[in-house]
TrEMBL record:
One MF term in the entry's GO annotations: methyltransferase activity
Residue ranges of every copy of the Ribosomal RNA small subunit methyltransferase E PUA-like domain listed in the record: 17-58
SUPFAM superfamilies found in the cross-reference section: alpha/beta knot (SSF75217), PUA domain-like (SSF88697)
Alphabetized InterPro entries for the sequence: Alpha/beta_knot_MTases, PUA-like_sf, RsmE, RsmE_MTase_dom, RsmE_PUA-like, tRNA_m1G_MTases_N
Organism classification: Bacteria, Pseudomonadati, Pseudomonadota, Alphaproteobacteria, Hyphomicrobiales
Species this protein is from: Aquamicrobium ahrensii
Protein name, UniProt field: Ribosomal RNA small subunit methyltransferase E
Reaction(s) catalysed by this chain's protein: uridine(1498) in 16S rRNA + S-adenosyl-L-methionine = N(3)-methyluridine(1498) in 16S rRNA + S-adenosyl-L-homocysteine + H(+)
Sequence ranges assigned to domain Ribosomal RNA small subunit methyltransferase E methyltransferase in this UniProt record: 74-229
Alphabetic keyword roster: Cytoplasm, Methyltransferase, rRNA processing, S-adenosyl-L-methionine, Transferase
EC number: 2.1.1.193
GO biological process assignments: methylation
Amino acid sequence: LFVSGDLAAGGEIEADPQQSHYLAHVLRLGEGAELLLFNGRDGEWSATVSAIRKKAVRLCVGGLQRPQPAAAGLIYCFAPLKRERLDYLVQKAVEMGAGVLQPVVTQHTQVPKPGLDRLRANVIEAAEQCGVLAVPDLRETVRLERLLSDWESGRRLIFCDEDAATNNPMAALGAIAERKLALLVGPEGGFSDEERHMLRALPFVTAIPLGPRILRADTAAVAALAVIQTTIGD
Ligand code: SAM
């Protein structure tokens, strides 16, 4: 269960109303039930239910079971999609170990102003479901031009380009010397010719293909994250 506050062995905390309902009425936990807590900062803690009150479940914090792993360094830059597909895309990015989620507005982006609170809740839910302790950081939405003009030196941007010059993503990724990486996947409508031209001209960009077919943006995200994970690692 994700808790936003500090955790300390022997401490007592109160689950928020939504979580209390989930623990008491969905999972039907009773006093003494054991569970695992994480706050996205110091790792995974054991805990037991110490009291089931009308509106809140109180938890007694045990010990640190698993220290917080270093957050993966990969910045996943994505054009926000419509609701369900965006939920899926964010969940897969969390599962696949993205360290930072960066919404990017491009010329054909469908949802230029995604609800970040909802997205943040999805990120935490995905982390709870797949046991990712290092909850990725969700950044404010930026326009593509701004993202590129403020680019962090020493970080390589891997750009999913269905017209990439190479047809071997592994070879293209294998040639990357930088350890700090970012990934950019376009919107359902794709990048404009102007955007592609701009991206291909940048010295810190590596364009990779993801096979001969045009993938949906959320499919491309999973495929690209898998290729990066298997070729380069975290
Ligand atoms: N440009 C596509 C078209 O012609 O309809 C639509 C874009 S595709 C649905 C969404 C994004 O996924 C693309 O901008 C690209 O970043 C990525 N993508 C999809 N298929 C790909 C492929 N075969 N190779 C590399 N990237 C791909």
